[in-house]
Design a protein that fits this description.
Aminopeptidase, 33% helix
């Protein structure tokens, strides 16, 4: 468990799969993700089995949000494509529960992942890709300390048009400076 005040990260359980499947079949949720085809329960089961074969550091974690005295599943986040020699990893996240959008939960989850990446895994760089059509996500990443590195022009075809993909990153030194400034 990676605890936070209003958001925490925990291992993904098989019991989470029905909610993930429902969220990942919602066109609004999919707008910011690389997925574009409907997912069956069998697809989610195969994803779970493949995920469990990955090294623990590369398994996504469930995002839970505090609602009163209980915790509710909201999405998942994780690091992948870890490069231990370069101390680098790519980051991915989705908040599937649309009732929790716009409340800062994604930003809080990003901050927990960065704390884990830099303080536990001893990474030096975390990067991500965000679609130009998703300004809400980009603002969240900027709040967490990510900076724009560049743009992959018209690199995604979605909804009958080409969309730019922004590559953003944060370095451990930048993250630490932000933590000390708080």
């Amino acid at each position: 468990m990676i605890p936070g005040e209003q958001v925490r990260l925990r291992a993904v359980e098989r019991a989470d799969l029905p909610e993930f499947q429902a969220w990942l079949n919602d066109p609004e949720v999919l707008e910011g993700l690389a997925l574009y085809l409907p997912l069956s329960s069998a697809d989610e089961e195969r994803w779970f089995e493949r995920m469990m074969e990955r090294p623990p550091e590369e398994r996504p974690m469930a995002i839970e949000v505090r609602e009163g005295e209980k915790w509710e599943l909201a999405g998942n986040a994780g690091l992948f494509n870890l490069e231990w020699t370069n101390r680098s990893a790519e980051f991915g996240i989705f908040i599937g529960d649309k009732a929790k959008w716009g409340k800062g939960h994604g930003t809080a989850a990003v901050q927990l992942i960065l704390r884990h990446a830099f303080n536990t895994l001893n990474l030096n760089r975390v990067f991500l890709r965000v679609y130009a059509s998703n300004p809400r996500a980009r603002r969240s990443y900027e709040k967490a300390g990510f900076v724009l590195e560049g743009t992959l022009r018209e690199a995604l075809f979605r909804g009958g048009r080409y969309i730019d993909i922004h590559v953003m990153s944060v370095l451990r030194s930048e993250w630490r400076s932000r933590q000390e400034g708080k």
